[in-house]
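Hello again,

I reread your note about wanting to compare the complex against the isolated chains. To keep things tidy I'm splitting this into two emails, and this first one only covers the full assembly. Below are the input lines as submitted, including protein chains and any nucleic acid or small-molecule components. They are followed by the predicted structure of everything together. The single-chain runs will come separately.
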Amino acid sequence: MSELKDLRDELRAFAAERDWDQFHSPKNLASALAVEVAELLEPFQWLTEEQSRSLSDKQRCAVTDELADVQIYLIRLADKLNVDLVQAVRARIVLNAEKYPATIFKSSARKYSDT
Amino acid sequence: MSELKDLRDELRAFAAERDWDQFHSPKNLASALAVEVAELLEPFQWLTEEQSRSLSDKQRCAVTDELADVQIYLIRLADKLNVDLVQAVRARIVLNAEKYPATIFKSSARKYSDT
Amino acid sequence: MSELKDLRDELRAFAAERDWDQFHSPKNLASALAVEVAELLEPFQWLTEEQSRSLSDKQRCAVTDELADVQIYLIRLADKLNVDLVQAVRARIVLNAEKYPATIFKSSARKYSDT
Amino acid sequence: MSELKDLRDELRAFAAERDWDQFHSPKNLASALAVEVAELLEPFQWLTEEQSRSLSDKQRCAVTDELADVQIYLIRLADKLNVDLVQAVRARIVLNAEKYPATIFKSSARKYSDT
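Full-complex prediction:
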């Protein structure tokens, strides 16, 4: 049984019980997602990459909450658009494997140095 | 078996095969997530809420790809921070249920009108 | 005399007096800008377009602070990259005038309906 | 005479000539701003801070265009909300000077290490 579908159903019930679907248009959910992602980005903005690899417990807890919020709005938006997230990710991995063959990109990391 | 953990393992292997972990610091992954979410927001920016509820097939496909990209970077970032996304979401739902009791928020939708 | 250059100089002095230039790499300033813009987006996320056109005084004050923060980081980032913002905007307006001729786009608003 | 007010007037005329004010609700402009800022963040996402301090000419040109787009939507949004950007920034600088006294923050850079 799918855990993302379980969460989707729980979040669906949560919104229904509060009459929140009226606010949850895809346009609004996409904005809410952008707001939550920025809250996730915030604790990292002045850290060095190195520091970001070894957060304190307090920092890690705060970031965990934001990760959850992003996942929640992502599930809600996908639900409203009738998109199966797991299937969408699988399709994307297949595509990326073709686009970035390991043999070519391993040596050069071109995707990144090209930017 | 957990589908998010499956995807996490696949994405872990994908990055390892290409030597991309050097770029995937939490700081960078949080930025990448912000970039992908904005690509998801982009097709909605000039739509009315109503239009966003009934996307064309072409629009829906484009949005599906962006949803997948957001989910991918979210899984990668959670992995690098050793966070179990499903567990984090469950904890958040419990907290939100206490913060926004259905009996109070159903009638007023105060969370939203307060903004 | 240019007011944006005045502000740039003031903000430059402000950072120098606090030894903050070490944190203000273009990479970090671009992240900070994304964080501030999301704080600006936040009060609008659940409003209808109509509501967003008639904010309360309290909402308008909060938004004014966020507009200022975005402008501040934008000036800082442009300064670090040696970009003249006014000149860059003027060049962009010329380009946009060619890309979206008024005669064609007036009738159809195609730029927006195409999305 | 104020250069930001000049640009505001030009952008106002630009939108009016194309009948675009119908799309430029504050809610939509705030989203557009978020989208543009992410395009500005994109070229920096995988760079080290060091690399971001020394962009190639090609990278710098691309970033200049995005800086301009952000400034344009910021001017438009401030205009729609009747906010004087220069005045708002000045007020913010005064506030920040009180919040972060140079004598205290110079030695410790606490604002940043606290995050």
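For quick reference: Chain D touches chain C through 69 residues (CB under 8 Å).

B.
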